Automatic annotation (TrEMBL):
PROSITE patterns: SAM_MT_TRM10. Residues 1-31 have a biased composition (Polar residues). GO terms for cellular component: nucleus. It comes from Umbelopsis ramanniana AG. Coiled coil: none annotated. The active site is at D224 (proton acceptor). This is tRNA (guanine(9)-N1)-methyltransferase.
Amino acid sequence: MSSPQPSDSSQEAIQEISNASEDQNNTTQVDMSKLYPHEKPDYKDPKYAGMSRRAIKRHYKQERWDATRDERRDAAKAKKKQKKEARKRMYEEGLITPPQGPKRIRLEDQVWSKLNVVIDCDFNSLMVEKEINSMQTQICRCYSSNRSAKYPCPITITSFGGDLEQVFDKKTPSRTNWKGVDFTTETYLEKFDKEKLVYLSADSDNVATELDENKVYIIGGIVDKNRYKGLCQEKAVKEGIPTAQLPIGEYLQLATRKVLTVNHVYEIMLKWLECKDWNQAFLEVIPQRKFKDFNASNQPNSSAAGEDSSDEEAVDEGSDIGATPQDN
Ligand SMILES: C[S@@+](CC[C@H](N)C(=O)[O-])C[C@H]1O[C@@H](n2cnc3c(N)ncnc32)[C@H](O)[C@@H]1O
């Protein structure tokens, strides 16, 4: 049987898709010259007093970038819409099949879990700027995961402030309206009963067999590329809080250490609450390339494992555009 030949309109759709993908990150569409007519900064401007030429250039570049944030966002949205419409036409013409990714669950079918999750953000001073940006992205992803979860969990971001707060203010000011997420300057010890706390740590000797809905599970809000091994475990022990690691080793062999990103740990918890099956939860969330001797036979159905290239060492820099607030 011969494969369907693209009609003129699908050829157009294909062209639109490829144009859209080419342009998606193309910020040159935004007319910077309107806002910043000069390519170079005015080095004599008194606001740059005392700064080196290099610092002024960097500052000016950042200013230009920040000033066009709204335009860039609108341009990206328009391209996304265009791409979506073109794809829809291709589905309708049977040229491509719609992806089988996880579906958004209906709001009325979601049941809020009693299990509380804390993201302990007491580590700002241990992270460089890039890592703080990654941390912000990971928190956004946790929030977004709640939207497609059958049993979303209330999340409390403790010890929140400083540089991380500034990144949120700049990239995701809408966080103040996020449903189910409480940002607080308080510590988890100030916020919750100590008896209910369990600090999750890959360095713990205790292996969790299940999650208890009456507990408050703490995830260390840090991106450290393995610089601070045992940091959260030691913090918890010092504070007299029990710790637990996820039972990854019981189900999978990983090629690297079993240290996951904050959002992956959170997503695994959400999956476990839904299916009560660690193996399934790990396979659906942990990126395939972390598996030792990965082969196609243990490939999960979900798109989550294969497409997300982030792990503890490398979390892609996300933006507020990707982490859309819940519309409820
Ligand atoms: C990138 S890790 C931080 C690593 C850090 N060096 C530490 O001391 O935990 C972020 C957090 O995810 C959680 N986490 C990561 N892998 C885990 C695992 N295998 N079991 C339990 N929790 C894990 C921990 O709460 C950890 O603090």
